[in-house]
Amino acid sequence: MQHTEGSNPVSDNAYIYACSSSELEEGDLIECEAGKDIIVVGRGEGKVYAIDGICTHEHSELVGGELDGNCLTCPLHFACFDIRDGSVLEGPADTPLQVYEAIEADGAVWVRYERGG
Ligand code: FES
């Protein structure tokens, strides 16, 4: 989902709109589409993060998981990933998730996503 109305503070067009800042409260997870990828944004310990939306263990949508502090737990087999860097904190997953730069600006959450990259 791409959002271009309003005053996008990010001028190089490398950021996609994820959601409004007020939608994303502590511990919330919101899914957004970026090209062929599914990305989840979350707020952990006050900061916003963006991470791959599909678990690396099997195909499970992480938006249905739980974010507790910086630990994102998969809803299927309960692997735990650090939302800050994608690393695996607890199995059964053993492959980290890709993370993306997320920023808050102009009342919205934006994710840096290289199209076609
Ligand atoms: S699908 Fe996520 S831990 Fe198995």
TrEMBL record:
InterPro entries: Rieske_2Fe-2S, Rieske_2Fe-2S_sf. GO terms for molecular function: 2 iron, 2 sulfur cluster binding; dioxygenase activity; metal ion binding; monooxygenase activity; oxidoreductase activity, acting on paired donors, with incorporation or reduction of molecular oxygen. The keyword rRNA-binding does not apply. Keywords: 2Fe-2S, Dioxygenase, Iron, Iron-sulfur, Metal-binding, Oxidoreductase. Signal peptide: none annotated. SUPFAM superfamilies: ISP domain. Residues 16-111 form the Rieske domain. Its cofactor is [2Fe-2S] cluster. Gene3D superfamilies: Rieske [2Fe-2S] iron-sulphur domain. The keyword Signal does not apply. It comes from the Bacteria. It holds the Pfam family Rieske. Belongs to the bacterial ring-hydroxylating dioxygenase ferredoxin component family. This is 3-phenylpropionate/trans-cinnamate dioxygenase ferredoxin subunit. It comes from Lentibacillus halodurans.
